[in-house]
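tl;dr need the bound structure. longer version: we got a ligand (flavin-adenine dinucleotide) that a collaborator sent over and nobodys looked at where it sits. i said id run it. heres the input, straight from their email, havent touched it
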Amino acid sequence: MQPSRDKVRFVLGSTPLEISLEDPGLTLLDYLRNQACLTGTKEGCAEGDCGACTVLIAELYDNSLKYTAANACILLLGMVDGKQVLTVEHLASDTLHPAQQAMIDHHGSQCGFCTPGFVMSIAALQLDVRHGDSIQTPDREQIDQQLAGNLCRCTGYGPIIDAARQACTQPLPDYWSHQQAAVQSILGQWQKQDDTLHVECESGLFAAPRTEAELVTYLSDQLSPPTLLAGATDIGLWITKQGRQLATLLYLGQISSLKTVNRREDELEIGAAVSLQRAEPELTRLSPDLGLLLRRFGARQVRSQGTIGGNIANGSPIGDLPPALIALGATLRIGCANGQREIPLEDFFVDYGQQDLADNEYVASVVLPAHPQPHFRCWKIAKRFDQDISAVLGAFSLTLVDGVVHNARFCFGGMATTPRRACRCEAAMEGRRLDEDTLAEAQNALQQDFDPIADLRASARYRRTVAANLLDKYFQFLNVTDVPSVYEFSSPQAFTHV
Ligand SMILES: Cc1cc2nc3c(=O)[nH]c(=O)nc-3n(C[C@H](O)[C@H](O)[C@H](O)COP(=O)(O)OP(=O)(O)OC[C@H]3O[C@@H](n4cnc5c(N)ncnc54)[C@H](O)[C@@H]3O)c2cc1C
Ligand code: FES
Ligand code: FES
């Protein structure tokens, strides 16, 4: 075991703090508002949707600070150990921060409840578009992406977007670089100590192992199954919305091997604790459709927090990535005391809420072929472009040899109790040419593959119809070489309907 420490240690603004945790499930937002009395950070929804609680989290990577905007309402205090937390109170010095000044200049605030969250998201964008001394002025798409996780119910978004544009062209305030240097040095010293956060309190345990070996020891030592905590974009809601008390939390975000991306000649391996935001360029390189899928995953704050492993391990039938990864032929590496085992990703999903994962195991990484089949497409169907869960997600992949179909892999989300391959439909396509008869037979087989449920998102009939239409759309893509690419549509709304 590594040396351990029983207090959460982080920099709040520019002040290093050590905090005793009395509840492993304490959220950063509750700590900020109720204990640190920093009430500028607001609670709107307490479920990661509205962005009123947005703060900046800085982490030390390769000796420089990387900032991300995060939702404090679903981030647990133990997760910021070894990091810097900046709230709206920390932005101004003698003068306002450029993000604050721009909101005033453009009349970007009315009731003001959403304003601190917007200011923090704009401040994050201002840092993002800086590369050394040069500034790459963000275009409208970049601003929209950055602000999609912040909701305003009175001002309207026009003035806020103008404010973001102005703020990003401004230099960083002088005091910013001074505090950056000081914080970098503190985080660097902490990093060198390499000690494990291990907090035992009356209501439970919060531990952040630093290696997979240490994680395995924790997993074997627990009397009752612990909760593995990655980005908390699901678990945070168990606490804030379901009022669950989680007795033992093992945080995976300090294990560097789980945060690694390995590109090999024939495979791409993405560690389970890699954030969705960080995985985006890697997956976009495999297919632009994967890039768009991630672009539509929650919003920026959720993608910065949420992980690839969490999106798989939660076993959700409507998780966005699993159907696409299954169609691409992904495998899952699962870690345990005896090392690792590897299974096809589709075999991981046994039934609703039941995954092929023992209590003493964890998802270590997902492995994708570096050169997937050439004809891969996937489409997410949801009511909104941003921040919406899929009603249906269809992912398709096959190889055409002289116009004949081989190795069809079609997988759907939202059509069954787990993400599931359409095996009858695939069989109906195998060895066939892409003509109308094949499409009709494949669509017919697809109806036999699934018996979808009706819920708030969609009726069973809607889901069946959409799945058949997606197959039709895929046929058009295969048959018509000049079918518009996903990026050629001018309006994002074009993707929400088939
Ligand atoms: C506002 C909002 C929008 C969202 N939008 C989308 C969306 O568009 N599409 C979508 O698919 N999902 C969406 N989600 C759901 C969620 O963001 C994703 O499922 C996310 O990938 C979960 O990852 P996490 O790291 O936050 O998991 P956590 O919340 O930390 O954990 C989730 C589950 O996985 C387990 N787990 C995590 N990592 C591992 C591991 N390595 N090994 C074993 N078990 C593990 C945990 O124990 C827990 O049971 C959204 C959530 C919110 C709050
Ligand atoms: S309070 Fe709404 S996202 Fe946190
Ligand atoms: S100013 Fe009122 S919600 Fe945005």
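gonna send this back to them w/ a short note. The first strand starts at residue 4 and ends at 5.
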